[in-house]
Specification:
InterPro entries: ARD, ARD_bac, RmlC-like_jellyroll, RmlC_Cupin_sf. Pathway: Amino-acid biosynthesis; L-methionine biosynthesis via salvage pathway; L-methionine from S-methyl-5-thio-alpha-D-ribose 1-phosphate: step 5/6. Keywords: Amino-acid biosynthesis, Dioxygenase, Iron, Metal-binding, Methionine biosynthesis, Nickel, Oxidoreductase. The protein has 182 residues and is α+β, with helices and mostly antiparallel strands. The chain has a single domain (3-171), classed as Jelly Rolls (Sandwich). The protein has helices at 16-25, 40-43, 50-59, 61-71, 88-95; strands at 3-6, 11-13, 29-32, 75-81, 99-100, 105-119, 126-132, 135-139, 145-149, 155-161, 170-171. The strands form 2 sheets. Strands 1, 2, 3, 4, 6, 7, 8, 9 and 10 form a 9-stranded antiparallel sheet that branches. The protein has a two-stranded antiparallel ribbon with strand order 5-11. A hairpin with a 6-residue loop joins strand 6 and strand 7. The longest helix is centred in the middle third of the chain and has 11 residues, at 61-71. Bound molecules: the ligand CSCCC(=O)/C(O)=C/O, fe (ii) ion and nickel (II) ion. Fe (ii) ion binds at residues 99, 101, 105, 145, 147, 169.
Length: 182
């Protein structure tokens, strides 16, 4: 279940009903897939062969097609980030810079965990959405956000796209975002 941290106040929201209500008010789509559908091995595997990525997509095929159908998504893949990822630091530099996308950014976490930091309404400011296996999030098109790993430094996620370049991050220079609050 996702947990929220509001950066300006350091307030944490962890009760499921309050998390769902908060994300709904912030126009962040949040859903939940059954993380137990994966084999025990794949729940803890962060270096994946193409066959293992295909196995993850096959495991969640009905959830992916249902979500894709409702949101008009046509392409999906699996991304894995861990210390074993050859260009991890380069990728994180891109993910950790405030950016926007030209389509809603849909990510379904299937293993590990990560944080999306999203620019909320003016009264809230930036807030963290701490995600774990089973959590599915959609960051709306053009909404400033960034992503970082948590202390375990590893995650596997299904990414859904409308356009192949839908993942392209457009830098967003936000004077309201204070680096010190990373
Ligand atoms: C865990 S998905 C990798 C992060 C990403 O694609 C992105 O755009 C984050 O904002
Ligand atoms: Fe993004
Ligand atoms: Ni919890």
């Amino acid at each position: 279940m996702a947990h929220i941290r509001i950066r300006n106040t350091n307030e944490r929201i962890e009760a499921e009903d309050q998390v769902l209500d908060f994300l709904d008010k912030q126009a962040i789509l949040y859903e939940h897939w059954d993380s137990n559908k994966l084999t025990e091995e794949l729940k803890e595997k962060f270096v994946l062969s193409d066959e293992e990525k295909r196995q993850i997509l096959a495991t969640y095929d009905s959830e992916i097609k249902d979500l894709a159908g409702r949101r008009g998504y046509k392409i999906w893949d699996v991304i894995t980030l861990s210390k074993a990822t050859p260009n991890l630091e380069e990728l994180l530099q891109k993910f950790e810079a405030v950016h926007t996308h030209s389509e809603d950014e849909i990510r379904a976490i299937t293993a590990g965990k990560g944080i999306f930091i999203i620019k909320g309404t003016d009264d809230i400011g930036y807030f963290d959405v701490e995600l774990e296996a089973g959590d599915v999030i959609s960051v709306p098109e053009s909404k400033p956000h960034f992503f970082t790993l948590m202390d375990n430094r590893k995650i596997v996620a299904v990414r859904l796209f409308i356009e192949a370049e839908g993942w392209v991050a457009s830098p967003y220079n936000d004077p309201e975002f204070k680096e010190s609050k990373r």
